[in-house]
Amino acid sequence: MKEQDQPKPIRAPSLLDALIPLVFMIVMLTWSIVLFGIDAATGPLQVALLMSAVVAALVAHKNGHTWERLGEEVVKGISLAMSAIMILLMVGALIGVWNMSGTIATVVYYGIKYINPAWFYFAAALLTGVIGIVTGSSWTTAATLGVAFIGIARVIGASEAIAAGAVISGAYFGDKMTPLSETTILTPQIVGSNVYDHIRSMARISVPAYLIALALFFFMGRSSGIDPSVDTTAALTALSDVYNISLWNLLPIAVLLVLGLRKYPAFLSILIGTLVGGLVAVLTQSELVIAFANDLSLSDPFAMLKGIWVAMGNGFALESGYAEIDTLFSGGGMDSMLTTVWLILGAMSFGAMMDYGGFNERLITPVINRVKSDGATIAAVMLTSIGFNIVAGDQYIAIVLPARMFMVTFRKRGLHPETLATAVENSGTVTSPLIPWNSCGAYMTATLGVSTFVYFPYCFFNLLNPILALIAGFTGFNVQRLEPEAQPVEAALLQAPLVDQRK
After folding, report:
1. 499 with 186: CB under 8 angstroms?
2. Helix, strand or coil, per DSSP, at residue 501
3. Is the pLDDT of residue 116 over 50?
4. Which pLDDT belongs to residue 38?
């Protein structure tokens, strides 16, 4: 074998090695935001993340890792997000078809008709919380009821930013409080706790945070300046002129809820909900579908098939003559999610390089070694989870890796595994939609049509939950303990393969 073909010895990364790609990413992301503002997520952030991944790969190669293996790790990292990407694309199809079928329009119609504008933000946070508990998915909740609430906000003159914050607050509370949620199931499994004990433990922090958030949304609605007596007759008339408003239009939502309760996989549930929406469009909005297809060479059945097909792939474009209605219910389609997919690919590529190069471990190990108290230990794991949300751009990495890293530390300190699981979820799960390049933040922006930078200050539950959890950790509230164990956690437990489960 030639000398140049022999593998180089792999060196452990220094602190400087670990900091170089991290600092580069922070600088690039900062300049992306400074130069492009809320448009940063349309391309600049993606470029920044991919360039950061290249820098991380260069440092890893300097330490002895081969280009071949680095390429393989990027593919592995991206593969962790493939189920999320598939769900994202299907959500785009669902929004396009539901815009066509009148499903979203019908929710908006009844929301405008029956929800007092002064209670709007409160209602949005409350109802999405209930739906989140029922479906077990913050993503599904945002794609269905969330989209409708954004539509209502536009009609009644409410703030879309506050509405998006209310939707996300409710959706993530519901996601945390149900045994149907993948993150709620996954986190206790990693550490060796029970899902129902996990929910009870989280509830001690999340319920107060949610109640405070509801109160804030209530008072914001009362003082928002939205006229409770605003005349919505014109909007209701326009909606009924464009769509055949009927309770039948809500059938796709009912089907989606039933499938969620029966624990069908998210992708399959959304696909079925999309197809049912197409059926409803054919039965209740046939003229609209045929007009959208705009192909006189086709018979009505084939024209409707074409219309549904296009709506799934490229979204629905409404041309009713009502400018506001056309803007409100046009959009969706798989291609509307491609920018978000690009963002996720960049984030996962960078996360893969940081993890494989040993940079994440190098950055975290000193933190683990320095913690002295129970409160500091809980704070360390929470800050680590938030850090992974920022660095890796994926909430599942921000849950799995910190949980595995801190398992031994928590047991040595005599802390119950559930305390670790609660700390991870109170930080890794709820902060994920607050980061623009995180897969959850990118998803919420793409689905709701409101930039992460804009809705961030109004995600009251997501901001309050980790703050209350930190306070609880330092005061000893909700800190569960074990008898100190003489033996560390078995190595096999720490070497278990990462589990990827997506909404």
Report:
1. yes
2. coil
3. yes
4. 65
State both tokens at 2. Answer: 């030639």
What is the Cα–Cα distance from 9 to 468, expressed in whole angstroms?
Answer: 46
CB 108 within 8 A of CB 197: no
Entry field: residues in the chain:
503
Which of 475, 390, 370, 470 minimizes the C-alpha distance to 434?
390
The model's pLDDT over 165-210, given as tens digits with 9 standing for 90+, comes to 999 999 999 989 877 677 787 788 778 788 778 889 999 999 999 9
- Read off the pLDDT of residues 205-229 as tens digits, 9 standing for 90 and up: 999 999 999 999 999 988 766 666 5
Per mean pLDDT, which of 200-209, 328-337, 359-368 is the most reliable?
A: 200-209
Residue 501 has pLDDT above 50, yes or no: no
Coil/strand/helix, residue 415: strand
According to DSSP, residue 495 is labeled T
Tokens of 123: 């209602």
- What is the pLDDT averaged over residues 69-85? 83
What six digits make up the tokens of 261? 């309760």
Q: Which residues contact 208 (CB under 8 A, 6 or more apart)?
A: 468
In whole angstroms, give the CA distance from residue 381 to residue 367.
Answer: 9
Give me the DSSP letters along 16-77: HHHHHHHHHHHHHHHHHHHHHGGGGGGTHHHHHHHHHHHHHHHHHHHTT--HHHHHHHHHHH
Q: What does the alpha-carbon distance between residue 52 and residue 365 come to, in Å, rounded to a whole number?
A: 22
Torsions phi, psi for 333 (to 5 deg): 95, 150
Domain boundaries, the chain: 83-336
Q: Which residue has the tokens 């792999």?
A: 10
State pTM to two decimals.
0.73
The DSSP code sequence of 349-399 is HHHHHHHHTTHHHHHHHHHHHH--SHHHHHHHHHHHHHHHHHHT--HHHHH
Identify the CA nearest to 466 among candidates 360, 389, 363.
Answer: 389
Residue written as tokens 């592995």? 76
pLDDT digits (tens, 9 = 90+) for 393-450: 777 778 877 887 787 778 888 888 899 999 999 999 999 999 988 878 988 998 898 9
Name which of 6-15, 131-140, 225-234 the model is least confident about: 225-234
Cα separation, 124 vs 367, in Å, equals 39
How many CA atoms lie within 13 Å of 417's alpha carbon, on the beta-carbon side? 18
Q: Tell me the C-alpha distance between 429 and 385, whole Å.
A: 9
DSSP output for 263-287: T--HHHHHHHHHHHHHHHHHHH-HH
**Are the C-beta atoms of residues 288 and 241 closer than 8 Å to each other?**
no
